[in-house]
What does this fold into?
Amino acid sequence: MAVAEPIIANDQDTGESELARRLARTWRQPTGIWGWFCNTHHTDIGLRFMVTAFIFLLLGGILAAMIRLQLIRPESSLMGPDLYNQVFTMHGSTMIFLFAVPMMFQGFGVYIVPLMCGARNIAFPRLNAFSYYLYVGGALVLWGGFLTNTGPDVGWFAYVPLSGPAYSPGHRADIWSQMITFTEVSALGVAICLATTILRHRAPGMTLNRMPILLWEKLVISMAVIFAMPAVMVASGLLLLDRLVGTHFFNPAEGGDVLLYQHLFWFFGHPEVYIIFLPGAAIVSTLVECFSRRRIFGYTPIVVAVVATGFIGFSVWVHHMFAVGLPQLSESFFTAASLMIVIPTGTQFFCWVVTIWNGRLQLRLPMLWCFGFIFVFLIGGLSGVMLASVPVDLQVHDTYFVVAHFHYVLIGGALFPMFAGIYFWFPKMTGRMADPTLGTWHFWLFFIGFNLTFFTLHFLGLRGMPRRVYTYSPDMHWHWLNVLASSGVVFMTAGLLVFLANVIWSRRVGEIAGNNPWGDAGLEWAMSSPPPPYNFLHIPTVSGRDPLWEDPPDQPVVVGLRDDIRETLVTQSLDADPQHKDEDPGPSIWPFLTALTVSAAFVGSIFTPWAVPIGAPPVIVTLIGWLWPRGQSPTPRPGGEAWVR
It folds into this structure.
């Protein structure tokens, strides 16, 4: 007898508690230390991404405080030039590669996207787990080098020839180069998982024009990651070959080109800005709709703006290179593209403001952070428009004006919406509400400290203070501005301590949240908080863009998925019609073992190119174990939800 295709019917099951018990047994994750390494469920892996990335935010913040302490007075001897070079390189590399992308794209995406799609797990869950372990491997390599005084010292973008073999002996630049490979392979793996989940695991009825804006933004970002990350991996790989094998890709004396490195790096580097910004914008769009108590204004313009940002973001990288002597016609083109990309971002800002203006605003704690994001990112965007002009860029190039703009865009585009998202989905993750009083203190301390530090850096840049100087003479008159900028770090540190206290306190004794404490419209609030291991008792269907606001109480659900195996529903990409069923591979130790063997090959290649052929067989063995078929699925038990013709 042939198994039927998934069918949709009204939920009349009176034995839902028994069904929930069977699903919980089928979808449960192993426990203990061994079980921790075998776990492949998206909620657990997503939380790991977020917690790990937040740890590196704290470490990067400590390095930033060290930089500010060094510069707080002229001719400071707190750090010598070598240690200072390592500190500012580690700060930038940690914040960009170990915090911003893993938190905003990978962490929130892995946790939220399957819930918002109405799926029971992320697509390719083992690849998702492998991506996390590889990310941790790259982070340990980078910080292990720093703690043993072999940390990279060539800046977070490691320009050649400074990072080449002639000017950076030893393995400091090699460690940075391989850290790039670790983290970018990790991001590529998560991008494949998220894009497939959004395209093939949406709930029936969730057509493309009914997808939440957050899913649109995650889909566009996933595509941007897939096209942008290989560029920086090629750049770092060629740099490693120049250093270890003796090639001359970036050696002008042998026919190489140092500008080739800059083109490859910034072809990744500027889309990276939007890979960090768009997740924040997605969080803001979600929260503005929820707390304005109305559908988002301009859904279609926002989606078009997101897609346009993804495309135009690949055509503006040369505005990072206006000072290298490019032809003026090329500079004019990239100036125009840099100004053009403001339009889709401004479209999103306009739609948020109109939604709030015409809604019934509830000024809850997450919305406070959204307003902080709008204010901070607006300042960063305006200074970005200034830097798009070649004459202005030439005057302030490599000064603290650029540092100020960079932090307003990336910290404003990442940290403020990150905290908004954490406070918003904290009840979903823990089942309890965060304390609003402590959250408000956290916001104002951080908001004041952030603007005190980074707005001041604009004036330091206009007064000519260059980046990457570890000290300065008293006659430069930068002292009091550096004191003011450094004082803001005290406020931000206090804000982070209040946040940590809030999380620890609220997770233990916070107010019980309930299933949907904010009254939001997304499917992620359609189950208990925290989610059960199977996410949804029945795969939901939707008939509108805001299912929990628009769908009737008797909205049909999907039945027919087996409860004795990890069976998932696969739908069509455009209209989300049920297409077929698939089986989740379940927990496995092999992604962790594969990450170990890949990490060993990557680390070994820092010291010898022979590590690649030597490390390949163990990688192949672990991949065979990962992909080895496990045999037939068990036959349906009586009383299960299997259906036959």
Q: What stands out?
A: The chain has one domain: 43-524. Residues 1-13, 638-645 have pLDDT under 50 and may be disordered. The longest strand covers residues 578-583. The radius of gyration is 25 Å.
